[in-house]
Amino acid sequence: MARRHIHVETKRVAVRMALSGVDHDEIRQHTLVSPRSTRRAVSLFRRTGELVHMKLNHKRRSDITLEELRDLLESICGVVTTTTNISRSLRRRGYTRKKPDNKASC
């Protein structure tokens, strides 16, 4: 099946219906949103409180380590996590990391 954009208001209705216990078939009849899309929207809403993935403000900082990123997440967002979780999450989203240059400076 082809992917299509689902308007935010339609997602809002589908999520409200799903959280109210309405059956996925009935949600599809009223909103034309598939059960899979509804489950994904509900999952995102439960995790983040948002209906759409928010674009990150990409200020390029390629020299940050996972440890520094972990500390920033804790101080800014109050999220306590491990460097392994950060690495896996970034990799799932398509980010790659530059390997550190281990050359000794003269």
UniProtKB/TrEMBL annotation:
Top-level lineage group: Eukaryota
Name recorded for this polypeptide: Transposase Tc1-like domain-containing protein
Organism, scientific name: Schizopora paradoxa
